[in-house]
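Today's session is about reading a structure prediction critically. Students often jump straight to the picture, but the first step is always the sequence itself: look for stretches that repeat, for charged clusters, for runs of hydrophobic residues. Only then move on to the predicted structure, which in these notes is written as discrete structure tokens rather than atom positions. Here is the chain we will use throughout the hour.
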Amino acid sequence: MKQFTIPTNIEEKMIEWRRDFHRHPEVGWTEFRTASIIADTLVKLGFEISVGKEVVSSNRMGLPSELDLENAYQYALENGGIETYMESMKGGFTGVVAKIVGQEEGPTIAFRVDIDALPIMESTKDEHIPQQLAFRSIKDGEMHACGHDGHASIGLALATVLSQNREHIRGTIKIIFQPAEEGVRGAKSMVDAGVLQGVDYFLALHVGTGVPLGTVIAGTNGFLATTKIDAQFTGKAAHAGAEPEQGKNALLAAAQAILGLHSIARHSAGASRVNVGQCIAGEGRNIVPSSALLKLEVRGENDETHDYMYQQAINILNGAAAMYDVELSYDIMGAAKTCSSSDQLNEIIEKAALDIENVNTVHRLTSFAAGSEDATFMMSAVQEQGGLSTYSVFGTTLAAGHHHEQFDIDEKVMKIALDTWLSTIQQIYLEERSNE
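Below is the predicted structure for this chain, in token form.
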């Protein structure tokens, strides 16, 4: 089978894209600039694209306020965003899906890359490479601190190569540029919009995660199912000295809930997690607190454990509200499933990675040590319709850990990931032909 022809400047282009995205990070559901530039690039490459509500359902978790969305939209307009595409993304519908159809019949292969940043103030220290080379974030309080700028660039490079090798494509290839991965929010909305229908092979990736440069992990298991919850307790304010009995203390209800949540008895079916990460409450020291907001999450290594933790958490929140005669409302801000990578696809990627330049170690399977991943919604959707799916890790040297203000990657990993994905496409074609 003839190899794909790869442009000689592709690595240079990936670095250029990655550093541009790094300078202009956009958190989940606000990726107007990033997504519009991706869409414009794909159209110029000859891809059929779908954007906005075509690929993101209206049922989205953890959506920013209307004001935040509007401010992000204006920022994008003023900093190189392309209004032609942004118009259909208004309201936070910031997904893009590219499709290219080959000249021969064949499978549908989908690749997913995430594109969002994190609410972190990036380091200004002299030793921080983005600071040295002038591609540090120009947005105060937002930063690409997890490598999604690199992921988006790998996706664009894959599109570039495929656009110049259409005659070697069998079937259909999709590249999914997903918003709002952080907080596990975006994948479910794209699944609900039907983006994964008809997909036979699905591949997602992450760079880094503590894996050294030159190591490729074909597939990962061990994702924890999770639900992220914002719980609002609403009571009644009163003067704490003059008439405390007239108040209904929302803060005490929240405090009771915190203790109860962290005391949930564990389930014998598997590992579980619970964490209350934030409590925002009260108005002043002499006022009975009328409101309290808890931001919490539960996790489980399987559906049974996760569902048990979730239901116990809801019971405790309701119980605490009843104890203090306050009202409770809660919103689901994010969710992910547990899903195992497909052994058959792991083997295909392992074969594909063995001969890639600068790859020295290949593992077929490992356990994911970073918690949860919303790509599991996409993985499950493909497996449920009879397809194969996996989540690969491409190692790279990190300046600091993920979600750290000095996070940075060794950009050599992007070419390794691109080459592996291209080789995987051809390995899939070989497997398909051998089964004909």
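Discussion point for the tutorial: The mean pLDDT is 96.
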